[in-house]
Amino acid sequence: MPASLVVGTQWGDEGKGKIVDILAEKAHMVVRYQGGNNAGHTVVNDQEKYEMHLLPSGVLYPDTMAVMGQGMVIDPWALIEEMEGLKKRGVSIENLYISDSAHLVLPYHILLDKLEEKLRGTDKLGTTVKGIGPAYTDKAARRGIRMGDILHPQRLKRSLEIALRYHNQVLKKVFHESCVDLEELLAKLLDLGEILKPHICNTSLKIAQNWEAGRHIFFEGAHGTLLDIDNGSYPYVTSSSTVAGAVAGGAGFPPGNVDEIIGVVKAYTTRVGEGVFPTEEDSSTGDKLREAGGEYGVTTRRPRRCGWLDIPLLKHSLRINGADWLALTKMDVLSFMDEIQVATAYKLDGEIIQEMPTDMEKLERCEPVYEFLPGWKQDLQHIREYENLPSQAREYVKFLEEKTHLPVKLISVGPDRKQVILRGGIG
Ligand code: IMP
Q1: Facing residues of 200 across strands?
Q2: Distance (Å, rounded) from C-alpha 346 to C-alpha 366?
Q3: Is 13 a catalytic residue?
Q4: Strand, helix or coil at 395?
Q5: Residue 349: which region, alpha, beta or left (left: phi > 0; alpha: psi -120 to 50)?
Q6: Residue in 11, 14, 37, 38 to alter for ligand 1 test, most ligand atoms within 8 A of Cβ
Q7: Gap from CA of 127 to ligand 1 centroid (Å)
Q8: Cα(243) to centroid of ligand 1, in Å?
Q9: Which residue among 28, 41, 109, 216 is the active-site one?
């Protein structure tokens, strides 16, 4: 049985949730391996809409195991709220497994996220203010609190003492804020531990056992490649490794055992927060794209910046991820356009370049070189067969395939699970 992985190829919000939801129907296990509740994905099925931030999309299937790997940072309050919300709607979360080695996002991380952004002033990153950066900072500084700790009162107290010895100094002396009360936080976390206890385990072992038993494992990447801490638009990135290879550490799964990597590409580009965006369309066309695509953050409700498909950026992303095929999303959103722009190269200091510079100062200076494709001006939402797409829409798909040298095997034409065109042996 294969192990498959879905990864975002742009700045997140490519519509991965829906793709995972469709493809994971046949999977036995869906695994998240990085990030936290800074992610947000929407799944629409049978007229019901689910917005999730922490739980893997596969949790909606009753027989699918949902795993939260050790590469994640988890706000336990947010997790319990999400679990309760699904339970109330009749979704079983009995098959949820949480790594004992995943790190916790605690209230002081959220506070620090806010204070650090304020300190940066006009140089702010535009984070989701969910405490993600400070939680990963603590992990790297080896003063983090892990899921497994909240099951052991003495161990948790000791870990909190070490963390607060540092954080209370920072809060008091740098930010002039009040200190965190250790006993109060300890008591709250132990209560949460009781609720989460049945789900906490060694998830890499669980994944390995299921993989060895021939079950289909599905890895669900969060965010997008340009938000990757090492390969993204630093410093305007998130604090985790968002690329396909992060599955090795974040889930404890050997990278060589991943059989297929699916790159999710939105038919245009968006980003939230600050930072470089070469094909941004800061105009009424961009505004129309935002409205047509409902481009408002699931996590923060912020309007997303909108622009055109960017081939040099995609080439960078697809190379790093080693994508085998593409899932093209939100194709229907472009239906209102007479003409569609795609950046196929950049102009940098008078020279045409085909590759995205990894030096962000250079990328800032890049001007996109556009090709113009005809729009199709027809609603696509009811179409289920590739051959039934208008010729201009097929042209757009072919153009993307030629530029990336990868097949587009799945095309999403609407928010519902069923609004999809499957090609090339999928489905
Ligand atoms: P953080 O992850 O909250 O630290 O935010 C860092 C940057 O990543 C900000 O620009 C966020 O808007 C962006 N970001 C984080 N998660 C997502 C996501 O799931 N989709 C889009 N942008 C995200």
Answers
A1: 98
A2: 6
A3: yes
A4: helix
A5: left
A6: 38
A7: 6
A8: 14
A9: 41
Tell me which amino acid residue 86 is: L
Domain chopping of the chain, boundaries = 3-11+26-100+200-260, 103-196, 265-422
Please name the fold of domain 265-422: Adenylosuccinate Synthetase; Chain A, domain 3 (3.90.170)
Output the CA 20–ligand 1 centroid distance in Å.
20
SS3 84: helix
One pLDDT digit (tens) per residue for the chain, 427 residues: 699 999 999 999 999 988 988 888 889 999 999 999 999 887 777 667 888 899 998 888 888 999 999 999 999 999 999 999 999 998 889 999 999 999 999 999 999 999 999 999 999 999 999 999 999 999 999 999 999 999 999 999 999 999 999 999 999 999 999 999 999 999 999 999 999 999 999 999 999 999 999 999 999 999 999 999 999 999 999 999 999 999 999 999 999 999 999 999 999 999 998 899 999 999 999 999 999 999 998 777 889 999 999 999 999 999 999 999 999 999 999 999 999 999 999 999 999 999 999 999 999 999 999 999 999 999 999 999 999 999 999 999 999 999 999 999 999 999 888 999 999 776 5
| Ligand 1 atom 21, closest CA | 12
Residue nearest to atom 20 of ligand 1 (CA): 12
Active site residue 41: yes
Look at the block and give the residue holding tokens 């410093």.
Answer: 235
Integer Cα distance of 369 and 101 in angstroms: 46
> Which residue's CA is minimally distant from atom 19 of ligand 1?
39
Ligand 1, pocket residues at CB < 6 Å: 11-13, 38-40, 125-128, 130, 132-133, 222-223, 227, 236, 238-239, 272-273
What is the pTM (predicted TM-score) of this model? 0.95
Q: Could you tell me the fold of the domain covering 3-11+26-100+200-260?
A: Adenylosuccinate Synthetase; Chain A, domain 1 (3.40.440)
Distance (angstroms) between ligand 1 centre and the Cα of 272 equals 7
Hey, what amino acid is at 105?
A: V
Catalytic residue, candidates 13, 21, 75, 228: 13
Please give the Cα distance from 38 to 287 (Å, whole number). 24
* The Cα angle at residue 255 between residues 254 and 258, in degrees rounded to 5: 105
How far is Cα 17 from Cα 238, in angstroms, rounded to an integer?
18
Superfamily name and number for 103-196: Adenylosuccinate Synthetase, subunit A, domain 2 (1.10.300.10)
How far, in Å, from the CA of 169 to the mean position of ligand 1? 28
